[in-house]
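## Example record

The block below lists the input lines for one assembly entry, exactly as stored, with component labels intact.
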Amino acid sequence: MTNAPDAFWMPFTPMRAFRQAPLLFERAEGMHYITPDGRRVLDGMAGLWCVNAGHGQPKITQAIREAAGRLDFVSSFKMSHPDAQAYAARLCDFAPEGIDHVFFVNSGSEAVDTALKIARAYHHARGAPSRTKLIGRAKGYHGMGWGGLSVSGIGRHKAAFGPLLPDVAHLPLPYERASMAFSRGRPAGGLAAAEALETLLSIHDPATVAAVIVEPVTGSGGVYPPPLGYLERLRAICDKHGILLIFDEVITGFGRLGAPFAAQAYGVRPDLMSCAKGMTNGAVPMGGVLVAGHVHEAFMAGPPEAIELLHGYTYSAHPLACAAGLATLDVFAEQDILGQVGQLLPLWEERAHQLKGAAHVADIRTAGLLCAIDLAPRAGADGARGGEANRLCLEAGVLIRNAGDTLVLSPPLVIAAQEIETIFAAVEAALARID
Ligand code: PLP
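Predicted structure tokens for the full assembly:
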């Protein structure tokens, strides 16, 4: 059969509903998507939390074109190319002090699975092969690989897939609506919340634990900023027990919080960081694991001719991705993207919190240029209000996301003040229309 209209089995999409009302975007520029019939839609999600410098950045587009004409592909197994070397070095400069190596992959899911493997292999290399347990957190999203899914904290994502990795435990989400709802910035109470890790380690022998993995700000699970002191305390507990701390910075990286990574924004340095999305401004698939020097060093004790990490992907450090990554760092520097975010943050937070008191709103959380608005569910119809609000915003020309009854916003970092107003006004108008 030719031209099957449903040939594309799409990710995380209700296919039969999509066929009834397909949403197609044909072009994108700056802050907007453009539909095949020419309608402009303000992108309140930076694509899927990735187009941080805005769509169609000319320098990035040009770099990809040139790279494609120069070197279409080269393996990274026992060979490399100049852009891969250059991008690795510049990325480590962008990352926090002490993070000085990067392992390139092609997505956030691969980055997380790679980080988990590096963590286990690190302990193996140091003569502690019994350290295999991995600790994730409730509501964590770490992609769709078997490792990332195992440490994720979203039960419905796992339901259909049978046994995942054994030896995984989860921290609770450091959030209590009663005391934290409508907090501006980071809520208090982080030290007490982080003690949950000590509690877990009194159940699981700490000498069997390889790593703790958290998103510094829970992203897809609903934008939960870390309470004050929480990440610092996790760091201290991990240090005390010789456990590696992994930050999954796939969303929080590349300026989302006004600093290169959450690690810098919050002043807490993990041992490993997974990143993806904003690395290439979403223009070419790419991910990476940023690795602290002491972790890398542990792999370098064997004979020099031996492969230290038996792991990698055909497209690791793909030339087009490295070119896009280098150009993205140029754009960040030349257009002072981080400085712009810093200036926008007070307005973003203020405008978001003006929705307090709007119909159905049960909590509002912001962190950097992220925002979640929890709606009280309609009786007997969980998620209905979120879905309807999302649809009404789209009809009004604003693309947002909903995870059930939580509305989520994550626009490109180059958003103008007027566009911030457009997004929140659209949400407000939508909420006024739903019952
Ligand atoms: N980790 C986090 C924190 C994410 O938000 C995501 C995707 O949204 C992933 C991992 C997976 O990334 P990808 O979809 O590129 O595999």
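The pocket of pyridoxal-5'-phosphate is lined by residues 107-109, 112, 141-143, 215, 219-220, 248, 250-251, 276 (CB under 6 Å). Residues 15-53+336-433 form a domain with the Aspartate Aminotransferase, domain 1 fold (CATH 3.90.1150.10).
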